[in-house]
Design goal:
alpha/beta; Rossmann fold; six-stranded mixed beta sheet; 18% strand; globular; PGM_Phosphatase; His_PPase_superfam
Length: 211
Amino acid sequence: MSTTTVVHLLRHGEVHNPAGILYGRLPDFHLSERGRQMAEITAKWLAGRDVVALYSSPLERAQETAEPVAETFSLPIWTDDRLIEAGNSFQGRSFKSRSMADPRTWRRLYNPFQPSWGEPYTTIVARMVDVIKAARRQAWGRQAVCVSHQLPIWMARRAAEGQRLWHRPDRRQCDLASVTSLTFEDYRLLSVSYAEPAAELYTSGRGVPGA
């Protein structure tokens, strides 16, 4: 008989970021109050599923999103660097700042297919595939949750669905506290599904994209 295992990729909730900084991998960016509510709602949405393993990016916003899931299932949070946000040379800047209009900044955008301004898409996919396999192995026959960030999750999904990796960032289907679920039959990917448990808390302005 075949074995069915599900790995849920959970994006973190809304971050307190009034300055509109592209925070990337910077420390000390925490969930906003609404972001914590998003995390709680998504943990409740996951309740009742057979989750036996919980992994998280080391960044604070991901750890804080993982906490309600840990409490719901009485699980430890396994911190895994492979789930971290994508590297980005614009980290720490505001898209509203004058520095973003500097030609020296935009020279980094010469290759959108790699991309030239940050961690290569192929590198992101490789590390995400590794951690998904680790989570699947630990949760074999049951379910796992991996808390990560928009671009790594979107790259993992595009790779799983056999799509090209370069894309328009404004067309990513990976909103705040959303869940992208990969269902495996033994080692074969059966399906990819997507849900937005906290959509009721979304606002028209959802902060810095891709974080």
